[in-house]
Design goal:
Layout lengths: L24 E2 L11 H9 L14 H10 L7 E4 L1 H13 L6 E4 L6 H7 L4 E4 L18 E5 L11 H10 L5 E4 L20 E6 L12 E4 L2 H11 L9 H12 L1 H24 L2 E3 L6 E6 L4 H10 L2 E2 L12 E4 L3 H15 L1
Parallel strand pairs: 1-11, 3-4, 3-5, 5-6, 6-7
Antiparallel strand pairs: 2-8, 7-8, 9-10, 10-12
This protein binds 4'-deoxy-4'-aminopyridoxal-5'-phosphate.
4'-deoxy-4'-aminopyridoxal-5'-phosphate binds next to helix 3.
Length: 350
Amino acid sequence: MSWENNVRKVEPYVAGEQPKQKDIIKLNTNECPYPPAPGVAECAKQMCTDNLRLYPDMNAQKLVDALASYYHVKPEQVFVGVGSDDVLAMSFLTFFNSDKPILFPDITYSFYDVWAELFRIPYHQCPLDEAFQIRKEDYMVPNGGVILANPNAPTGVPESMEVLEEIIRANSDVVVIIDEAYVDFGGESVLPLLEKYDNLLVVQTFSKSRAMAGMRIGFAIGNEKLIGYLQDAKFSFNSYTINMPTIEMGVEAVKDDAYFKEITGKIVATRERVKKEMTQLGFTFTDSKTNFLFATHKNVPAQQIFAALKENGIYVRYWNKPRIDNYLRITIGTDEQMDAMLHFLRQYLK
Ligand code: PMP
C-alpha cells in the first residue's frame, strides 16, 4: 500500500498558453487589449503601502458596495472572489450538493467538469444542437443543479432570455448558475430575473470587459439567502482572499462607466469588422456576442491555421476535441493587432 492510494487525484484545467516573449500578438485567452480605467493606475500610484501590514477587509465591503450600487442590488446580494473561477468553484462546492447529476452542455467552459470531478459532484453533459444552442428539454429532467455560460464559451453563442427563464423556472428545487463572463460584449444579462427567482445565481468577472484579468476579481449576484450560504462556505475555507490593493483598484474600475462602455464598444466594433474581412477569406462564424470569434474555414483545417499563426507570433486558441476540432477561438485585440492577423491570413490563404 502506498500513501498515493489516499490522495485526491484530479486532472487539472488547462488554461491557454501564457508565452513569455514580448513581441507576439496574444489572442488566445480572451484578455482585454486595452488598459484598465485610468483611475486604476492613479489608485496604484497613490496606494499607501503602510496598510499592507494589516489584513484586508475580509468582506471587501467597498468593492461589494460599488458593485451593488452599479447593478442596483443590495450589498447583501453580492459576493466577490479571486476571479470568477474562485466564485464558480465556491458556488459548485456550496450549491451542488445533491446525489443527482448537475447539468451543463457538452461544449462549454472546460473548468466545469474539472470542478465537478474535484468536488466529486455527479454531472451530465447535455449535447448542444448543430448550431451550438442548448436544447432546453435536456434541462427539464431531475438534476442536482444547472450551470450555463451565457454567452457560451468557446462558441460565443448567446441563449434567449425566454429559454433561460424557462430553465430557471423549471428548476426551482436546485440552484441555476448563469456564468456571464462575456455578457458585456452585446449579450443580455439575466440579472433582472433575480426579482422573480430565488434559485438564480449570476456570475461575472473583471477579467474581460473591465480589463483586469491580472487583478483577479469575479463576483456573484443572487438573493440574500443564496449569497449568505456562499459566504458561509467561503469563510469556512479562506477568509482573506481579496487583497487590499485589489479592493481599492476594483472600486476605481467600477466607478468609470464611460470608460467601460468605450472599451467594450470598441471591441464589439472591431469584432464585427474583422468578421466581415475574414468572411471574404472563406471563414464562417457563430454569431458571437463576446470578445472573441469562433471561426472555421471552408477548406483549410483549423489546426493547420492555428499552427501557421503561432509560427508567425500570433497566438489563438485551438482544441483538438470532438465537434470543435475544426474551429479557432480568436480573441478580439486592438485594430492594429487584428490587421496584422488579417494581413498574415490573406498571404497564407492565397
Ligand atoms: N467563465 C468563463 C466562461 C470563462 O471563459 C472564464 C475565463 N477563462 C472564466 C469564467 C473565468 O475567468 P476569471 O477567473 O478570470 O474571472
